[in-house]
Each structure stands twice: as structure tokens, then as C-alpha cells.
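Input record, target 12 of the design panel.
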């Protein structure tokens, strides 16, 4: 699996999840990922170490004896991801039931959407109040549209 095949934002969530299990160093994260994927994905040091530095700066992980571990703030971020994922998964499951998408395509779409949402969250944090309100209105309208479509199926 090439780096480009990994949806943007996935590495961040993967490392946060991995560090919930036990503290690990950057090298251990790389080795564990390669082991778990049976060699299909080996994240490069150029991906892992800058990402660890960013997660540290954001307070999502902390340095402890034995490497890094996910903080309470990191756990909250993962929980928000899971809630968002569940909402999208419910919508895509409706599509799967009527046979419009295969499970693999739907899963890939969900992962890409979640990556986009993660990026949007970062961008929204830097917006003014008026622009945030516009985003909220847009997202509410889209959620309402999806719920109406789901009820019609």
C-alpha cells in the first residue's frame, strides 16, 4: 500500500489509536504498523516524526517513559471521530442496502470524508464567528437533506 493510498488524516487517527494501547516510540510505531499490515504499509520516518511533533504541540499525545501516549484530549478527538464516522456509516449503509456501492468503495469514501472533516475542523478553528455560522448553516442543511433521503429509502 503506497503512502498515497492512505487517506489524508488517517495516519493521525491511527497513531492516536495505537498509542491508546501502550506507549511507543516513533520507531516502534513504524514497526508495529508494518507488522499489523503484514508489510502492506510501513509509514516513513518522514511521516511519523513530524506527525508526532504536531500531535505533541496540539496536546493530543504526551511523552512518557517508553515513548508517547494519547492524552485525554487525544481520546476526546478520537471519540469525536468515531461519532462522525458512525453518522456517515449509517448513511452509507443505507446505500449499501440498495446496492449502489460495494462495501470497499463505501468504506474508502467514508475514510476520505472523515479526512476532509478533520481538515475542516482545523480550518474552522481559525475562522471568525460569521464564517463559522455559515459553516454551521451549511452542515445543518446537508444533514437535514441526508436524513430526508434516508427516510425516503
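The sequence produced for target 12 reads:
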Amino acid at each position: 500500500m503506497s503512502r498515497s493510498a492512505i487517506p489524508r488524516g488517517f495516519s493521525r487517527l491511527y497513531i492516536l489509536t495505537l498509542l491508546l494501547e501502550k506507549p511507543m516510540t516513533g520507531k516502534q510505531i513504524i514497526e508495529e504498523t508494518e507488522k499489523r499490515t503484514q508489510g502492506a504499509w510501513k509509514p516513513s520516518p518522514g511521516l511519523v516524526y513530524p506527525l508526532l511533533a504536531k500531535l505533541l504541540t496540539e496536546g493530543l499525545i504526551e511523552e512518557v517513559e517508553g515513548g508517547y501516549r494519547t492524552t485525554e484530549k487525544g481520546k476526546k478527538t478520537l471519540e469525536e471521530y468515531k461519532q462522525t464516522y458512525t453518522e456517515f456509516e449509517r448513511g452509507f449503509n443505507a446505500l449499501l442496502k440498495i446496492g449502489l456501492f460495494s462495501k470497499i468503495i463505501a468504506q474508502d469514501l467514508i475514510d476520505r470524508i472523515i479526512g476532509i472533516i478533520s481538515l475542516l475542523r482545523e480550518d474552522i478553528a481559525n475562522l471568525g464567528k460569521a464564517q463559522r455560522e455559515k459553516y454551521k448553516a451549511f452542515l445543518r442543511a446537508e444533514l437535514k437533506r441526508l436524513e430526508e433521503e434516508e427516510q425516503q429509502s
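The chain is about 70% helix and 5% strand.
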